């Protein structure tokens, strides 16, 4: 909506002066953001608004983007890789923002998206993989999915995984999070007919090469029905799982 | 089904002598295969029978496995990375086997699987990526999916891709096949809300490092909703796309 | 100019005693710089004076080099990868030095170089790529070029780029700055007939391998007319763009 | 031009029946090429027609593409990485095609493009780098440039390079082709103010890693005004040099 | 034993003239081998004679080494990575040599070494890993071990492995052979308290990087009690397993 | 043991109220550990309890796991890669925990495991490899092995190693720890018939690539009877050595 | 010399009680050093005493080693990669130790080694390479060589190097220190008949990969008579240059 | 010598007409070599004529270069990496050329260079390393050095090396050739005070990565006085050893 349109709507009394002021400010804000070019058409195009990847941005930039989104009336804000300091900055302009420490995710979402029918399962191999698993879980929930989490079921004690077969079978998509040799993805892939999104983590040391080992192993999985996202990319896995889960349709509202 | 069971069923006249002989032979055959241990329970577990990856096997081994599968009454046989020579060997014991030259796939499937409702789109960047794209397409069709193919739509002439937006939007899953810098996956990922399976190919030279460049680029896609399979792994992409497409349900038989 | 020449010129009254003192001091200064060997002939040879790459130098060395250049009458000083601390040190001996925080560039340039006719466009994919883009822009401006900047036009929202086609077409050289999968270079390369200098950035994580992924992707661009500089090398891109833009000739002075 | 337009032009007698037939056949031909999607708008967009990268295509595909281009009235056909066998196949449908053995380039170009004013210099380090240097030279000439070649001027005998300084200074763009440690690019870059396109070659053994060593070295050149294309990518360098040289303007026709 | 010693023993009638001749010839033979320096003291030092790694040697060299060993009275000859052609050459001078095609091993061993008490299990993931598994099995048997083989028990059909738990538990050392993502080693390692020697194979394609992926994955196994040998190094694994199995002591002769 | 069983045993007076409370608390604790899923069956399965890898866990998580293990009556607790801060946290709930600074290992073990008959030798190349060697030594001792340590016997002064041949020969398993070029493993492997576990360390700089060089060198050892664990993985080497040493049987109790 | 020998010499009055005490203390000291095993025979074997590589050692260990060497009467102590903190610790037990900040070298050498006849030249490409160049220069001087230093003569301004040809020709060995693309080694190698030791440095960024680029480039030098040491290994280069320079013989004492 | 000079010398009767013709032809020949630019000044500059690296050249080019050198009166021709086919071609124009099969070296040298005083020792680890060792030996002999060869003295049987200590000590420079883990260089480096040139070979498989493992290991040698040349670069090692050995001076002619 541009300036002319806003004024026309005011003239037609479709909006109040206060509303017009707010809309005009939003526009101004956009112009002021010389470091970002927010893709407000994305929600229309893909059903999901632009997500803020905070890692390479300053606290000032993160705050500015959140402010700009609020001024455009954005109802769903998700920030990933967000340090507490950047979250605090953003909270100044959006006090309702919530923060989850482990996954470093911040969320503002007064009303949730409608739920998809299917359920997403997040399984992770070890305690050290939790931050990535949480990032995936929170992302998928934010986007409108029922999410179940199963943690510390790595293949060194494979019975722990088998004890959860019912849970695995009840999901429509599975996200398998693992570092070290990443064998969890192959084992789950061999046990189920559901699509598996594998997330390698940088957990481990020495020849794990910062997660490259788990990444390579997952790409070479001997099981079929497994595809892979970037190292530590819990967000990407949660998003992909949502994108797949959408094919199950939306739940009927009660 | 073990020997005792077969004989019991014969006794109960549930099967004929001929059938019993065939079943017993199948069992024997299994025992004879000292180099392979075919997973006949997989179809039950995952809905898809074991697929023959021919690359590391001798022609004699491939023929033996096909024979063994036929003797077990297997109705759906798919062989990938199959040289013409290995296909010829297998054809001796299964004359109905068909072969597609470009993708090096062999198929025996007297009756197709029931079709999934959704459609799978295979898009590839250049003519040189065709063998991999074909492998994905044939795999997905074999598993029971409607498949549409869009070829040579690389980003150096991006209007060719935009001209096919309708096709892209009509699919429920998209497989993006590209070598060189693999940018096709990101561009498609940014244009659609459907899950995109990216397949890097080894097409290119020099610093493409045998496909590793395209692989890395796809894993780092700035678009969301993209996950990746191994280099040149058309089969894996077709299988993953099928696995996702199953969530759309089966088409009603007419 | 050596000691003898300075004294001869003094004798001939071509210079004053003050000037002679200054020149002699400059010479001394050179001798004192045991850690650097400044290439004062470079400006004559290539039209551009030696640039100070501050990253591997101590604050004391940076200050010494700036002092030495001033004493030689150097009119154009550019320091790159300069921490604020090193800038502060250099400012002590050259108070007119200016500093740009984001790009970590310091500049002393009382009179600009004559402007080239053509315009250089700097396009970057995301907010996190800004420091590198700014380094390119400031370098190109320092060397005497009109520079236009277009930020946050990554391929995940490709319409933002298409909205700027006029700007792209008005430039004589384009610098494309991108991290992650670096697809921006290929897309721009496919849309224009102008030379594109691609700058991979280290923006991203995991399998981006500190920018190597974007670097490899750009080297394998399926578009023609693209060449590449080192990861995060905004300076190199700005310099190369200037070097190309020189072929358009100098603007006439008004 | 689509079918309707062709028929309209026939009706208006702007074209003869023979011409109309030819045009319709061209269109048909496009439809027949299921493996390629030739970008006939590229010449309009970038001034250069689509080039055929033959390496990943079969002889039949190369021939089909050449035929299709001829039928569309394409006047400038360049095929790179073309084996003699593929050239022979293409020659069947385009007898005027010429072939250069060393660079594996085939060219059909009844009338040259207009010449750019500036001159392009191709310098190579050793005899073994010749195929890549020739690919660059032929590409640049095809696109409409005066090209001068200076061979075997590697830095192990640096006086051979200095003996050619006049030639270097007379060029507007320089392409430096080298394998092994690739030092030629840095040395030339330090001697001139002209843009240098560096082409690493796979010449060498052991730790040259198939050209990766020269590539990395060139990307890290201590000289400014150097940018790099893919390993052995003579075509890319020739194209980039042309793209830059266009800024010097076209020569006046005599 | 040197020439003087041989003659002294002859003089003392400790040996016959024939024996002396044979011993002198052996010595001569050693001198003739200018390309090899056989370590005849190794058997004394480590209990195992020097093994012939045929890969980097010519057929003539392999034959010469076998002849030399026979002339020294060597009773246990093992040649690995031996092409049929080299085997044929060696057979000329040692007709009792036997050859196993799949593992490319040749053996001459008129009398076996005494058997170790414990049993070695060789488990492999897929049919394509057989050559490496066989190399391990034949090496271990040659050195004096009872060996059991379990093939095609990869983790994509993990029930096949569980069906063999009794066999796994009856072994004192386990060799796990796998390509692709190499998860077999971790799964076995998690199920047993016996030492596991993991052998990565080069089976797979694309991002398996010639076996490096399986190697890295095995080195990062989340299970304890797993150590790793070089890619495709069946010999090394068989040898290591033997070296460990020796700790169980020798079987009593009946 | 679940709640019902505990109460039944209380009812039958098999346990006291205090014991019941403790057991119920243990159960509760387990339920509270949402970040870990301790494998209490491992000791039964492999003879060794689950070991705590502290590196990727928070101090709170480490303390929680230790508390949970104590409440389950765990008698053998080993924590590796444990910072002093995490140790301090864990000590709050298990005051008997001891800490070794160099290896960053914490141990709680009121009663040792029974000793294996054979002896384990830990040899390391340089002073800088000590932390890894100590981790191996402490792990092996914890698991019930006599351990001898020989330090700073690198191959640059090979006589220091030869001076310890008696020690080497008295061991049943040898752990060779070395950084840089890791040649120690090959030299020891060539001198003994005992199994050698090689541990590459990240000691060195530049082209040691964080230990990858030593890792690769050890995997390519020209000596037989050598297998390798991950870089800096002293724990893994100690565990593997124990696993092998178990084959020598347990020492008789006096 | 062991305890018995010391006492015998005391008895024979070959040494005083004070000397005996000192010798016994030295021996004790050795025994106390459980973390190091100093190779006191090295000076006899190679003419150079063991050098202390301080990087992987604690301050306490460094001090202990220096003390131990002093107590053994060691007259030449060289410590490399020594932080100021470690130097301060060592100085407590050896107050004459001197420290050079840039190269992080500490030296105790009351009397120099006799000088070799030939001269060693250290040439470095840029100011940022100075720490490595200094390490080479100080090492070579410590070992008894005349050393000349030429700094900041990188190939981007190649005339600065040519201006020093006389110096180059007067040396018997040349150490060439360079980061980035490391071309200095090739250029010097092509200009001289003297052996050149190339030292790659980690100076640069992005695709310099921590010095690996310069390392690879130097290994692939097109000039002959160049060999290479590890990245940033100034010590190794100085030592190698000394080892070569010894062939020129010792200078006569005046 | 240029045309004018030749004619002047003819006029002065310093040369005959035949000689003048030959010299003029040589000059013409140079002009004819459009693919090579032979550095005839190198012998003057470095004492060694340009060597022909045949690998990247065609048989016709190799023959042309040899002919050109002969016509210039070149007395010392060395061709490396020369296939038999290229040798045969060159022999047509230089019948005295000799060829050594294993090292693929061809030599024409009617009169040897004067001998250096010192001796060069070539030591290699295994039979498979022989071709590289021979290349080093022949190169060093060609350049005027006494060369001694010691083969198959790898560290797996280290006593074989110790048996040759006298030989090692009698050399002034040592070339150590080894593949696999390349430990030979470190062990020799620790035993001698002479400079050691290490040559990694591509011998081995799997994680030897085509010789990169041995290269890295040698660069990280814990012994001092070791420098490294490229993988399989026997020529480079022989040349470097010669360059060092020159410092011992020339032997007096008898």
UniProtKB/TrEMBL annotation, chains A, B, C, D, E, F, G, H:
It holds the Pfam family AIRC. Residues 118-250 form the PurE domain. It comes from the Bacteria. Keywords: Coiled coil. Residues 3-46 form a coiled coil. InterPro entries: P2CMN_synthase_LarB (IPR039476), PurE_dom (IPR000031). This is Nickel pincer cofactor biosynthesis protein LarB. It comes from Jingyaoa shaoxingensis.
